[in-house]
Amino acid sequence: MNNATKKYNIVTFGCQMNKADSERMAGILETMGFAASEDPNEADLVLYNTCTIRDNAEQKVYSYLGRQAKRKHQQPDLTLVVAGCVAQQEGEQLLRRVPELDLVMGPQHANRLQDLLQQVYDGNQVVATEPIHIVEDITKPRRDSSVTAWVNIIYGCNERCSYCVVPNVRGTEQSRTPEAIKAEMEELGRQEYKEITLLGQNIDAYGRDLPGSTPEGRHKHTLTDLLYYVHDVSGVERLRFATSHPRYFTERLIRACSELPKVCEHFHIPFQSGDNEILKAMKRGYTHEKYRRIIDTIRRYMPDAAISADAIVGFPGETEAQFENTLKLVEDIGFDLINTAAYSPRPGTPAALWDNQISEEIKSDRLQRLNHLVAATAAARSDRYLNRVEEVLVEAQNTKDPSQVMGRTRGNRLTFFPGKIEKLEGKTVRVKITESRAFSITGEMVV
Ligand code: SAH
Ligand code: SF4
Ligand code: F3S
Predict the structure, then answer these.
(1) Is residue 138 part of a domain?
(2) Which atom, in ligand 2's list, is nearest to the CA of 165?
């Protein structure tokens, strides 16, 4: 079949893993001869890469999907694909709910898009949600940025946090080999990418499923070893990694980050709650004291390190006093950024079945109070940049003010300053910071 003039549109919901998967699927479609289309209503193939972390994320997909399903009645050769975490969670049921669908594919199947589409073009309605060993992708992803890129190092998650769907939808941990990771990074270096973020849902678990663990129980392959192994890839100037889990975060890793010049002083370590009882009910496997010790150690090695996190309010049974322990942790640590969320009961997770659920009113009240505090601490953290000269890697034009460009500090602060993107894209420049807001700063380039 000739796809030369066909267009595709991908809509991505959810986390960085989904964005990375979308880039690989876009790459596969382009190798097949499809061209990107900005407008889903013009596309011959529409792919929703979905997220089910909270109920509102899932519901969004259904409303988008409804519109395209209708369009399919006028344009029967439209190909409709649902990929990602809702696809994995709902499987066959999605076909019953939206019979217009051609393909439902879980995240482990992202790299198999071409095969699966071939089955669709052969006349089948396809559901691919069985657990598989993730195959290395041999096509080139179509990356959204030409400066920063994501590289998966471990897929899946073996934790069982009592609120979380990720292990159900992403499957068990599968680490890529250090060689495959390095080869991808070298290719990115050749293509002049300047910053790479290594990705995993629980990145500290990297390597524990690879052969070669020692009899003493130490793993031969760890995130720390990987950082040393890939650090010198040429062309790449900055390295980041996410997401860290407080349970497995080691001092050895912190030391490596302080020793390795390309690793940026930014750590994303979700704490979820500042209360030990709630942490236990969440099955997180650490206490708030342990979390505080990790941050202290990071700051001992790297005093200016930026710390970001995720937190949940209104977990089943959370009392006002327990919620206040979260506020206290936030106040004490001084976070640069926190992604906050009200607890959302998810199908197939233990906490969803408990009878001590918190009312929506209380959840939204707590979320508001937490967000208020987060904005205040983030603003205080932004202020520390004032009058400093920061290294900024320029990524793009400022969409709100074309006379400015946008980049990030090593601490991941969004930074704007006057300049031309044609000249500055991909360059690391020195910027004197003159203005600060909660989540971004502004300055002027200095030479
Ligand atoms: N692997 C990461 C987080 C993955 S999910 C970790 O272990 O921290 C991203 C974030 O979504 C979580 O950190 C959590 O804050 C939030 N989240 C996950 N499940 C949720 C739920 N059921 N309700 C509300 N927020 C949730
Ligand atoms: Fe979910 Fe916990 Fe795994 Fe993070 S570590 S993805 S919160 S189960
Ligand atoms: Fe959402 Fe799946 Fe990521 S549920 S947060 S897209 S792992």
Answers:
(1) no
(2) 1
Domain total of the chain: 3
- Whether residues 213 and 331 share a domain: the answer is yes
Q: Are residues 324 and 437 in the same domain?
A: no
Q: What DSSP state is assigned to residue 41?
A: G
* Dist. CA 202 → ligand 2 center (Å): 7
- pLDDT grade, residue 442 (50/70/90)? very high
For a substitution probing ligand 2, which of 51, 199, 202, 249 has the most ligand atoms within 8 Å of its CB? 202
Q: Which amino acid is at 260?
A: L
> CA 374, CA 438: separation in Å to the nearest integer?
9
Residue range of the domain that includes 275: 148-383
Residue 120 exposure: Cα atoms within 13 Å on the Cβ side: 22
Phi-psi label, residue 401: left if phi above 0, alpha if psi -120 to 50, beta otherwise: beta
pLDDT in tens, 65-100: 999 999 999 999 999 999 999 999 999 999 999 999
CA of 333 to the centre of ligand 1 (A): 20
Alpha helices by DSSP H, listed for 126-174, are 166-170
User: Distance from first CA to last CA of the chain, Å, rounded?
Assistant: 55
Length of the chain: 447
